[in-house]
Amino acid sequence: MKRYVLLLAYEPGGWDDASEEVQQTFFDAHHAFEEYVASHGRRLASGALADADTATTVRHVDGAATVSDGPYVETVEFVGGYYDVELPDLDSAIEAAMLLPPSYAVEIRPTVLIEGYEHA
Amino acid sequence: MTDAPHDPTAALESVVRKEWGRLTSLLLAQFRRLDLVEDALSDAVEAAARRWPEDGVPDNPAAWLVTTARRRVVDRLRAESMAQRKAPLLVTDAERREEGTRTMADPGDLVEDDLLRLVLMCTHPALASESACALALRLVLGVSTHDIGRLFLVTEPTMAARITRAKKKVVTAGIPFAVPAADDLPERLETVAQTAYLAFTAGYAPGSGPDLLRAELAGEAIRLVRVVLALRPGEPSLVGLLALMLLQHSRRDARVGADGRLVLLDDQDRSRWRRDEIDEALLLLSEPVLTGPISPVAAAYLVQARIAAEHATAATPEDTRWDRIVGHYDVLLELTPSPSARLARAVAVAQAAGPEAGLEALEGIEIAGSHRVDAVRAELLVRAGRPVEARDAYDAAIAVCRNESERAHLVERRDRLDA
């Protein structure tokens, strides 16, 4: 089994104004995805993210930690949710990603083990 | 291997050429270590080059190579386990079945073949297409990194880095060494075809300087298609593509003149076209699988092959059935509209119906960064007796043409206007 994080990116906005029918198609797509994952592997975690304008970014500038408002990259599409799953291979991850709503761009990122690192 | 030559060098070359992909796939299926297998096999080939001249050619050269390579891999694995290092393994479908996680199609629907697994892994759509080409040429055919670099007009270190990155992506992303379900296989084989055709056209993409065409390397792409077609006989996209490649490749000896310049189709010595390859292509085009319903990708290869066949079967340029070629281009444009195909159609229209009709067909075609539209316009304007406009068109073409020998040709044509 391989572990993948699927990052779901889309243009923000529109959800609150969407009709119940439209919202239901999104729920259905997520359910189909989750069923696929459950039957081929398993889901470790998932989450929907609040809009990118609520993000806070911490980075080090000239040796000092700075805190700034907003996400680390300004783009049209923002990561709005993620799934952390275990699936057999990239083909099954692609197959699962295709079940998600078509307005998403889904980035499939394999996770790696960092040799020598142990959790505190 | 009873037909193995006794000369050690020839025997080694022959087994590497014929068996590289099969041996690679065998070792990958056993060890699942993409990072070790290729090096181990290369080491085995080096060892054979040293040992066979002294010890004689083994009875089964392929088995000798795989045994030697296997030993190298095992040595490396042992060293790793002492260092307590754990490298990531390729995902295989055998493993998927063991885990029972995937609803597998009836095993009878699956093609159990390691070489096909290797081809499909190398040409996986999650790889950039140029990386897929490089990986397939290297792992399936054993083409050297140096030659793959030449094919794509990059240096050997650049190509080596590209191949290493591609291998890393395969292993890390979990691109499986596997045959997909029967439903998905035709689409994956189309990606194989597209990968092979990209490698082929790279060989005919004019390079700068003396390495004008690299036709012998384009020939390796034909070999790739033959390997896959042997595994999946009658696959329409591969049959159509092989016919197309053979027809284009059959003209290679006539394409570059004694002065090292490109020779245009009309000026080529047709007796130098390879008849055997043309005949094979025509036979492929008459295969019954191509008359049934086929995918748009297969249909596009087929119609391009039919266009090439019209040229290949015309005894002289004057005998070319341009009317039929225009018809083929109309079909092609319906399948895959592209500016290059529209340009080629305009050329065919000019041949069938005169330069003014050709110029009309040329209207509105734009290919960014290419001299070809202006070069064609210039030629048609010359033929239409409009030299002033022709000169402007040549100037425009020359300004953007980056290929030395093609630019020289354009300059010569322009200067001829003044004579």
Overview of this protein structure:
Chain A has a four-stranded antiparallel beta sheet with strand order 2-5-1-6, covered by helices on one side. The mean pLDDT of chain A is 91. By secondary structure, chain A is an alpha+beta fold. Chain A has helices at 20-40, 90-97, and strands at residues 2-10, 42-48, 56-61, 64-69, 78-87, 105-110. Chain A starts with a strand and ends in a 10-residue tail after the last strand. Chain B has 20 helices and no strands. In chain B, helix 9 runs parallel beside helix 11. The longest helix of chain B is centred in the N-terminal third of the chain and has 24 residues, at 8-31. Chain B starts with 7 loop residues before the first helix and ends with a helix. Chains A and B meet through helix 2 of A and helix 4 of B.
Beta-strand fraction estimate of chain A: 35-45%
Order of helices and strands of chain A: EHEEEEHE
* Poorly predicted parts of chain A: none
The number of strands of chain A is: 6
User: Would you list the SSEs of chain B in sequence order as H and E?
Assistant: HHHHHHHHHHHHHHHHHHHH
Class based on secondary structure composition and strand pairing of chain B: mainly alpha
C-alpha Rg of chain B (nearest Å): 24 Å
First-to-last CA distance of chain B: 65 Å
Major sheet characteristics of chain A: 4 strands, antiparallel
What's the quaternary structure here? heterodimer
Shape of chain A: flat
Biggest sheet features of chain B:
none
Of all chain pairs, the largest interface belongs to:
A-B, 17 and 18 residues
- Span of the ends, CA to CA of chain A: 25 Å
- Give me the number of helical elements of chain A: 2
- Amount of helix of chain A: 10-25%
| Low-pLDDT windows of residues of chain B | 100-112
